[in-house]
Automatic annotation (TrEMBL):
Belongs to the SOS response-associated peptidase family. Residues 229-261 are annotated as: Disordered. The keyword Lyase applies. InterPro entries: SRAP, SRAP-like. GO terms for molecular function: lyase activity; peptidase activity; single-stranded DNA binding. This is Abasic site processing protein. Keywords: Covalent protein-DNA linkage, DNA damage, DNA-binding, Hydrolase, Lyase, Protease. It comes from Krasilnikoviella flava. Signal peptide: none annotated. The keyword Cell wall biogenesis/degradation does not apply.
Amino acid sequence: MCGRYASFRDAQDIADDLAVAEIAEDARLLSPSWNVAPTDAVRIVVERPQRLEGGQTGEITRSLRLARWGLVPSWAKDPSIGARMINARTETLLEKSAFAKPLGVRRCLLPADGYYEWRKLELPPGAPARAKVPKQPYWIHPDDGGVAALAGLYEFWRDRSKADDDPERWLVSATVITTAASQDLERIHDRMPVVLPRTSWDAWLDPAVGAEQAMGIVTGPQVGMATHPVGDAVGSVQNNRPSLLDVDPDPRDPDVVTTEA
């Protein structure tokens, strides 16, 4: 599960790091966020043919664009389904209709600086059986300090209630692909987003790569991650500031998972 992440790098820095040729204006202007939540606007890196006048298409170009987090399938009646599709499990990518087609033709990278996960803890002695399970939030990020290129899928959804010339008639949405947690991270949570290494970016974005080959990419090597506990403030989407990444000085987790480089 990946339900919160942070993306606060400048658009040009992301473009330079991921060899992006074009930056959409709305993606350039998106504010930095230390607490990205489902249905938020997020940046995605895609490779698509350039649009030319007269409906023609040009060469394939890598671009930084904007999407809504939570994939809305093209066949959906309305976009509300996206809130339930923020993640796509590697184990069922080829089985679920919402993900199978995008896996073959609409793959993306979601540039992040890291993500958050919550570790479930044991109830204290004497606590009622129905007591709320305590959790410790963690900040998880690439151990080399580089960008976390989250493997994702994107889709286009047409709002049939809007006119053909309405610029708001199309919604672009995206989902983050997740997999079973690595040995280092499974103490925190049993799932983790697929963070692709630099050597996999080109193949993942390449429109000529098919679904079967793409499966080999998301089930292959991933980036090493570092972790440390953070405070509870990240649990509220109203909180969005750099201090969310600060180490929790008094974590409730009695067995802190720290793997800082």
